[in-house]
Design brief:
2 domains; 4-stranded antiparallel β-sheet; rod-shaped; alpha+beta; 13% strand
Length: 174
């Protein structure tokens, strides 16, 4: 399927182009960027829910670590050392804190890989070689009912907004 590809060198120009295209009721399929930009995601309506998954992962880590330490220290194998209580919560705080950081990180990475379908062995489609370097790539799907004049208008809008290059390309976007 044919797509209109706009190549930008600045994220502010991309954001301005998104605003202009949305005002013109032109649907943007995607924007590829060399780094994450909250402005671009918000303006495209694609804000991530991964932070919520991270919070849930952190809550699970706290509960799981506390449960494991409690089970091993109090229930399964209680040791009386010098008359100290087996439920010694202050000494567990550091372990719970560190395990929360570790398990939250691992959970966030797993959620991110599942969400982006970037499992081992999958190759990411690269629309433009410089999108991993320093260029921002805006992808607009050319629908079947678009006329050549509409396509030319979109290309002109992209150039007016600061696109370095605008081209047509066949893409398979999932």
């Amino acid at each position: 399927m044919q797509h209109i590809i706009g190549i930008f060198d600045n994220d502010d120009k991309v954001v301005d182009a998104i605003h202009l295209l949305k005002k013109q009721n032109i649907a943007i399929a995607d924007v590829h960027a060399p780094f994450g930009s909250h402005h671009i995601l918000r303006d495209l309506g694609k804000e991530s829910r991964i932070p919520y998954g991270s919070v849930l992962s952190g809550a699970f880590a706290i509960i799981a670590t506390f449960s494991f330490i409690y089970w091993t220290s109090v229930i399964n194998y209680p040791l009386l050392i010098g008359g100290k209580p087996t439920f010694a919560f202050p000494s567990w705080v550091v372990t719970i804190y560190l395990m929360t950081i570790l398990l939250t990180f691992v959970g966030t990475v797993i959620i991110f890989q599942m969400r982006t379908k970037m499992m081992f062995g999958n190759k990411a489609p690269i629309v433009h070689d410089e999108s991993t370097d320093d260029k921002f790539i805006m992808i607009i799907e050319q629908t079947k009912d678009m006329t050549d004049q509409q396509v030319d208008k979109i290309k002109k809008l992209l150039v007016d907004q600061g696109a370095l290059e605008v081209k047509m390309q066949d893409l398979q976007i999932a």
